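R.M. (postdoc): so does anyone remember the format we settled on? I'll just put the structure tokens first.
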């Protein structure tokens, strides 16, 4: 091959790679800056819904916990714990938060307050703990909120650490039984099916991190006693259903296969043995999406919506939405700029009737959705300049 031919061939390859890279970078819908609002929408079963911007300037906020005085605790993925009082974001983060690893999908994530917070001031955080050789693990910590700082901060659970940037998410919720439920990411090989690992599980603990004697795998050979359920990929919402008291989660599949599950003790939720999704290059995760002995999802999404955050509406402000489930979406089908809020309607037997996509016009990644003590819905946008939004009747 002549030198000139070789030069032309290299040029063609370089241009081809550049074109492919450019095409990949252009996948997505342009997202305009979030306006000042308020925004008013008509939805399928509730007219004149107003969405107001309560606070701005949050860096990829992850979750909301309401305090007895009406204030909100909001963790930012970069490692700050913020507080919003009377609709105003305090410019000073709360001190005393553990150091976090923010690579990949890690960072400071969920926050929950103890059911007796007014007496003990205890706050629970999930975060990606940095460990040796650059590894990280989703961990659960507890501290006491004193003034504008967390004190007596300590880790309650530090699962096994792995290389890489996947499976670093964690959620925390208090059950009706007073126990702490903590989810750990399991998007690492087959670790979610490994009973000797705490990854890819939902754990059940006392409020001090010790293990209850009635856990489903207590004293079972080969099983960690903390395990409540196994076979989870990445749990991005963990709630107690306000009407039934039963634990629910939603979790991200890979390319499709996001799901909502009703969490029951000792059950196996399938990952990575079964899934409705495909691997990112295209092949199916499993030939059949269900299997005897493994729980099927209550709801599944194809394509995926990057499900995040979840709330069951029980208030009186939106009468047409009572009993509906709301789920945040960060993008649909792998296309950036398609984030929104989904509403799911079930019948009395928890069978799905219909779904509605809402707030599509805002094109925001909705990371969190919670019902506030005032009966309104509060959302967080997962953006560099993230916002706290409030949904309320316009009239």
């Amino acid at each position: 091959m002549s030198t000139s031919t070789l030069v032309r061939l290299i040029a063609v390859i370089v241009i081809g790679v550049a074109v492919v890279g450019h095409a990949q970078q252009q996948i997505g819908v342009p997202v305009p800056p979030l306006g000042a609002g308020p925004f008013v929408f008509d939805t399928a079963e509730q007219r004149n819904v107003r969405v107001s911007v309560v606070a701005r300037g949050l860096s990829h906020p992850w979750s909301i916990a309401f305090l007895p005085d009406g204030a909100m605790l909001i963790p930012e993925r970069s490692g700050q714990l913020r507080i919003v009082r009377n609709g105003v974001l305090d410019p000073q983060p709360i001190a005393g938060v553990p150091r976090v690893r923010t690579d990949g999908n890690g960072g400071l994530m969920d926050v929950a307050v103890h059911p007796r917070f007014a007496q003990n001031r205890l706050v629970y955080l999930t975060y990606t703990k940095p460990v040796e050789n650059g590894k990280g693990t989703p961990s659960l910590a507890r501290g006491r909120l004193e003034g504008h700082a967390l004190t007596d901060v300590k880790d309650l659970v530090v699962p096994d650490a792995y290389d890489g940037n996947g499976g670093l998410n964690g959620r925390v919720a208090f059950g009706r039984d007073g126990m702490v439920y903590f989810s750990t990411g399991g998007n690492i090989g087959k670790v979610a099916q490994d009973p000797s690992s705490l990854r890819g599980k939902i754990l059940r603990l006392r409020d001090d991190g010790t293990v209850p004697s009635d856990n489903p795998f207590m004293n079972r050979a080969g099983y960690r006693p903390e395990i409540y359920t196994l076979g989870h990929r990445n749990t991005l919402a963990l709630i107690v259903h306000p009407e039934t008291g039963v634990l629910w989660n939603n979790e991200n599949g890979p390319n499709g296969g996001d799901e909502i599950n009703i969490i029951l003790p000792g059950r196996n939720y399938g990952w990575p043995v079964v899934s409705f999704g495909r691997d990112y290059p295209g092949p199916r995760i499993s030939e059949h999406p269900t299997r005897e002995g493994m729980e099927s999802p209550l709801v599944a999404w194809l394509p995926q919506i990057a499900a995040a955050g979840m709330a069951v509406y029980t208030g009186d402000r939106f009468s047409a939405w009572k009993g509906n489930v709301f789920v945040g979406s960060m993008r649909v089908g792998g296309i950036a700029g398609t984030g929104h809020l989904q509403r799911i309607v079930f019948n009395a037997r928890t069978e799905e009737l219909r779904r509605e996509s809402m707030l599509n016009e805002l094109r925001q990644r909705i990371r969190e959705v919670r019902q506030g003590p005032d009966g309104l819905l509060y959302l967080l946008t997962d953006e560099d300049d993230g916002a706290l939004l409030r949904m309320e009747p316009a009239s």
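R.M.: ...and that's the designed sequence above, right after the tokens. Also worth knowing: Helices lie at 3-25, 117-120. The two ends are 76 Å apart (CA to CA).
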